[in-house]
Fold this protein.
Amino acid sequence: MAPLPFPFSRAATAIEAAISEGRAEEAMHKLIHALRNGGDDKAMRRVAADWIERIGLPPGAAKALRKGNKKLHEDWLGISEMVTNLQGEGKTYAAAVDQAAKHFGCSDRHVQNCVAEWNEVSRTRWEDE
């Protein structure tokens, strides 16, 4: 049995035509507009996925996606929540940091950095509201 053809839509065809004609900026604007305004269908999602796959992330793009914010430590949320919960149970900050460090297999300094990042994110969130 022959495979089914790719999904078809007029908007996706127009974007693919713009890409093949070298009008990448126009195609990108049309694609973004369609995705943001709910005009995305299966064909449009395929075009977007193909484009992302072809282009990939150039060097430095990950920081741009984070809007310039620094990369967060791995497990920072779990570590900081554990420290906060242990303090809520009556442990001192130092004891909570030590227990979290042993639990996650990392240094005390790493745990302190994670808690500091969590505090920074929490403070920034409250300032924005």
Remarks:
- Helices lie at 10-20, 24-36, 42-55, 61-65, 76-88, 93-104, 108-128.
- The chain has two domains: 10-56, 76-128.
- The longest helix spans residues 108-128.
- The mean pLDDT is 79.
